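Fold this sequence, please.
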Amino acid sequence: MTLSSKPRLLTLFICLAASSALAQDVPLFTDDFPAEEFRARRESVLDAIGPNAIALVQGAASPVGYIRFRQTNNFYYLTGVESPHAYLLLDGTRREARLYLPHRNPARESSEGKLLSAEDDEMTRELTGVDAVYGAELLSEHLARFAWGGNVPAVYVSFRPSEGAAMSRDLATRGASDIASDPWDGRPSRDMQFITRITERFPQFSIEDLSPVLDQLRLVKSPREIELIREATRLSGFAILESMRSTKAGMMEYELDAVAKFIFYRGGAQADGYYSLIASGENAWYPHYHHGKRRLVDGDFLLMDYAPDVGYYTSDVTRMWPVNGTFNEWQRDLYGFYLAYYKAILESIQPGDVNAIMKNAATKMDRILADWKFTKPIYRDAAERFVAAYKCRAERTPASLGHGVGMAVHDVGVHDGSLVPGMVFTIEPQFRVPEERIYIRLEDVILITEDGAENLSAFLPMDIDGIEKVMKEEGLLQSYPK
């Protein structure tokens, strides 16, 4: 080969490699929802804000580091678009939806695969059902036309923090607050910075909060949303089952995290719904302990609470079991009482008034408490406080059985104290014996149906005999010793 031919061959190789990269089979849009469902959600927002208003929704920024991009929940909920630095404008004056996307970056696409960009106008409109697609730089010009027109519309923007990967609003709020209170930082959140930019550039606008509108839309799930939550629950349950089988004294908490991650990703999850809560012994006293650094000890009681992100939807399932596979005396005593209490709630859930549901469950709890033979006086005292606290919550208005589950593990939406079909939530009563630092919690995901309630995680054993039977089976970690 001559020296002069080498550059030409190198150039040909680079071109072929780039062409191959551009030809990757990279999904450009979700197949979990059709364009019609996204369009219907946007129409509901337009109905809520009225004809003299516009709504602006900001998508997620590019991640820093080698991290897969994940869109914010509300932006995905309204568009299905997974391109970073995207914006959605819902125009109530014309009842139309406009997407603003970054322009194509050929170098990045040749390395990572194609993303929807401003140049994909026709394709994006067909996939998403929006009315128009523009480059992100045109958003300012289009807002100026609204601001300088004769009838200035109100502008709806979410005041509450955006939810990203493995995030609920409570933790998004905490993260923003920690930064704001740091004397060496103090940056505003990206959400607040967006609002500040709008008001600085266009003081003519009156800014309204879009969050309550989106929260209420997300409260009741569609059939397709329910199927994604059902799949996330299925994977969560399988991960917990496999962890039960694999649990042995001497291993580390993080080894069960590894088992669950294998089940999640092998089953098609795109990420964790939240960090794993795998707490043995007294670590379970802390409801959100997630360090995973303790070695399991014979005699420990172990808590596992973990679920994946499946197509932007998650679950929230918790089980507890003895590390050695056999419930000892105090575990049978306290867990047995807790389980009877827990089932009293499950059996009472139905569509309708939450206060009535909780009071019905409380009547059953009184009978359970009266008949239970506790092995220690402190256990009975703890149980009496537990039941009394539940009765107190049953009197609140509005009453609540637990928290919503959906795009976030602590999902958004405020209900009026009644359960309607399509609501999905988890119950998680927390039982404590402070004298011995004992903490017990179960969680199941409940779907309200037209004529009752479905426990989506009912396939996962919670009875003592069922758990002990599973733990006698060989686990994944025993097939692959450390």
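The first helix runs from residue 5 to 22. Confidence is low (pLDDT under 50) at residues 1-23.
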